[in-house]
Write a sequence for this structure.
């Protein structure tokens, strides 16, 4: 292509990335600011991290949010994988369109609608047995699973549909039972997709404010709910410190899994090539 | 073992059936049924008590079923101009945000799709990374930048460009920045996964036949990327219509957003039937965009997320 475009595109890309990253960088920089005034630079200091770790109420919220995220991401990974598998591999069946619609709708549904509808469900069913009559941990987990399993399903489904079915079909032809084929062949191939699905479900759960506020009982306060009520009162350096820790943790985990998945994928492609060349020689 | 398997099969319970049933039942119970309950409560009246709405049907003492449906909430929505204005203003905000997202995302997605294959995954990871970091933290970050004594105003003042701080917080400007910023990855990913598949030889042929590169881009690349444009636009537009957090934290009080109206109706006025009617109306407005989104394959949108 022309030389002009080859310089315009990278410039636009750099500007786009600047837009994406400058706000995040500013939060990190000001978390090390000694001054109480968030925007006046008063020298380097880690005092806000100290304040943060002395705030027991906030740490309690962090711990609650982490537990909710861990439980809901795990359930969402199982349900989402099943849904993705069904949509990608099971062919036509009655209710397929409905399932496919229910899987992708939560991705775009405004959170105020999902949150309100789940709360009204919990309230309407509260008199029934097996339904928690106190809203809190379990109702939040159910709500987060419903939202995040859609993301897992979409990731697993797109991974499965990019792989050809010949390996699985060969195993079935050789007489392996479907469950065995799934465990021995399909599962190892989609494991990276499930892992990133779990991770995404975990971070989405950790971050959710609107659906959580609807489905949490009056006495439950998760981390995002605490951040929201603090931010409404203004910017505080303590939140900057907390935000920096969250950003760093997420960046490390996401980059590490990204590198791991890329390496796995390269090894797998290498194996496939080897197998194919061996096949053509033989 | 063998007998029990035969029995299960006789009953129509197969492994395949169970695998289909588990996620289906979950979604039916926690995604579809709740909408029916919202629909039901939107026809009820408010009352003081727990729950704060009247039942639709009741067994009276004479063992007769007493049914009371009320369209009052919907009539109220239709009569009060506040709601209509909020709906129109939400749609306007979502449309403008979607447009600016597309304007920013297209060149970025195009540049990544054109980049050397060695760089593509890294660049994609850089797009996805902000999406992984807390949404609330990212909105919060803009408060620090846009405030009267925030980073931008301080910088401009110290450079001598301005003497009075520019008021940016609690304005439509801040709200648009927040929405475009938060939803940008949702636009880039489906666009990228579309643009990545394009065949370069088409463009080369057009240029060889005398088209300028820009004309070739407009007449070949843009039409071919239409499915990506539509999928990305729906991923931004639909949730943006009901957005609550960004208008609440960055926008001004005078900007009516339907998500905020619903929230206030529910949490501040404790008007559950009223909030339900707003939710049902919002759902009705969004049914068409959601169907368009589902047609343009949701999985394309998710494809980029796990890179």
């Amino acid at each position: 292509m022309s030389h002009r475009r080859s310089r315009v595109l990278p410039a636009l890309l750099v500007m786009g990335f600047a837009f994406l990253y400058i706000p995040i960088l500013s939060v990190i920089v000001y978390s090390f600011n000694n001054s109480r005034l968030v925007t006046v630079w008063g020298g380097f200091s880690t005092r806000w991290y100290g304040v943060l770790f002395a705030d027991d109420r906030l740490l309690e919220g962090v711990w609650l949010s982490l537990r909710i995220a861990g439980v809901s991401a795990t359930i969402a990974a199982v349900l989402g994988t099943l849904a993705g598998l069904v949509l990608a591999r099971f062919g036509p069946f009655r209710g397929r369109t409905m399932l496919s619609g229910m899987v992708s709708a939560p991705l775009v549904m405004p959170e105020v609608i999902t949150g309100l509808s789940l709360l009204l469900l919990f309230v309407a069913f509260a008199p029934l047995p097996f339904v928690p009559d106190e809203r809190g941990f379990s109702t939040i987990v159910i709500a987060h699973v419903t939202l995040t399993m859609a993301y897992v399903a979409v990731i697993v489904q797109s991974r499965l549909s990019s792989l050809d079915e010949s390996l699985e079909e060969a195993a079935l032809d050789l007489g392996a039972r479907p469950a065995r084929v799934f465990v021995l062949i399909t599962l190892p191939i989609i494991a990276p997709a499930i892992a990133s699905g779990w991770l995404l479900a975990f971070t989405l759960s950790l971050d959710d404010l609107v659906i959580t506020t609807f489905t949490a009982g009056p006495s439950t306060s998760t981390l995002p709910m605490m951040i929201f009520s603090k931010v409404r009162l203004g910017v505080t350096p303590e939140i900057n410190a907390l935000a920096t820790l969250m950003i760093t943790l997420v960046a490390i985990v996401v980059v590490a899994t990204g590198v791991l998945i890329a390496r796995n994928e390269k090894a797998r492609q290498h194996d496939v090539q080897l197998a194919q060349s061996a096949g053509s020689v033989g | 073992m063998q007998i029990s398997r035969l029995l299960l099969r006789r009953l129509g319970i197969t492994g395949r059936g169970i695998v289909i049933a588990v996620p289906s039942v979950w979604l039916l119970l926690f995604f579809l049924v709740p909408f029916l309950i919202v629909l039901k409560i939107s026809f009820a009246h408010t009352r003081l008590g727990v729950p704060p709405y009247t039942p639709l049907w009741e067994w009276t003492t004479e063992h007769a079923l007493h049914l009371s449906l009320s369209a009052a909430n919907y009539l109220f929505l239709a009569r009060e101009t506040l709601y209509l204005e909020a709906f129109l203003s939400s749609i306007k905000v979502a449309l403008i945000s979607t447009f600016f997202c597309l304007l920013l995302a297209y060149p970025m997605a195009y540049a990544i799709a054109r980049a050397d294959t060695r760089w593509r995954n890294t660049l994609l990871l850089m797009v996805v990374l902000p999406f992984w970091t807390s949404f609330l933290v990212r909105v919060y970050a803009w408060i620090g930048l846009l405030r009267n004594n925030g980073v931008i105003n301080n910088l401009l003042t110290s450079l001598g460009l301005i003497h009075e701080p520019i008021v940016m917080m609690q304005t439509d400007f801040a709200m648009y920045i927040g929405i475009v910023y938060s939803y940008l990855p949702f636009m880039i990913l489906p666009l990228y996964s579309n643009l990545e598949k394009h065949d370069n030889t088409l463009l080369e042929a057009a240029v060889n036949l005398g088209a300028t590169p820009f004309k070739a881009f407009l007449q070949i690349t843009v039409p071919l990327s239409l499915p990506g444009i539509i999928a990305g636009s729906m991923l931004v537009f639909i949730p943006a219509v009901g957005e609550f957090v960004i208008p609440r934290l960055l926008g001004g009080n005078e900007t009516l957003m339907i998500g905020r109206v619903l929230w206030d109706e529910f949490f501040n006025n404790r008007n559950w039937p009223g909030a339900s009617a707003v939710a049902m109306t919002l759902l009705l407005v969004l049914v068409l965009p959601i169907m368009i989104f589902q047609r343009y394959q949701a999985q394309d949108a998710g494809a980029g997320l796990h890179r």
Q: What stands out?
A: Chain B touches chain A through 95 residues (CB under 8 Å). The first strand of chain B starts at residue 57 and ends at 59. The CA atoms of residues 113 and 196 of chain B lie 5 Å apart.
